[in-house]
Amino acid sequence: MRYLSANGPRIHFGLGRRENIESLEITWPSAHVERLAKVPINQIVTVKEGSGIVPKKFPRISWKSF
Questions:
Q1: Considering the domain boundaries, does residue 49 fall inside one?
Q2: pLDDT tens for each residue of 27-66
Q3: Does residue 66 sit within a domain?
Q4: Are 50 and 66 in contact (CB under 8 A)?
Q5: Which of 19, 22, 23, 66 is the most exposed place for a label (fewest CB within 10 A)?
Q6: Per-residue pLDDT tens over the stretch 24-36
Q7: CB within 8 A of 36, min separation 6: which ones?
Q8: How far is the C-alpha of 11 from the C-alpha of 47, rounded, in Å?
């Protein structure tokens, strides 16, 4: 790590041909475990500890350009 640098907080999941995420379990640093169901794909979602998915506007990503 270098001076004034940081790691991005985003996690990218490769899902193959799946159309949704049936369930997702997050273990937070506080040891709180959060279970999410029917998580949407092909978009960025914000998850807040204790609140689950919270609304936040992100630009749509065109995967065809990759």
A1: yes
A2: 999 999 999 998 888 888 888 999 988 887 776 666 665 5
A3: no
A4: no
A5: 66
A6: 999 999 999 999 9
A7: 21, 23, 24, 25, 26, 47, 52, 53
A8: 11
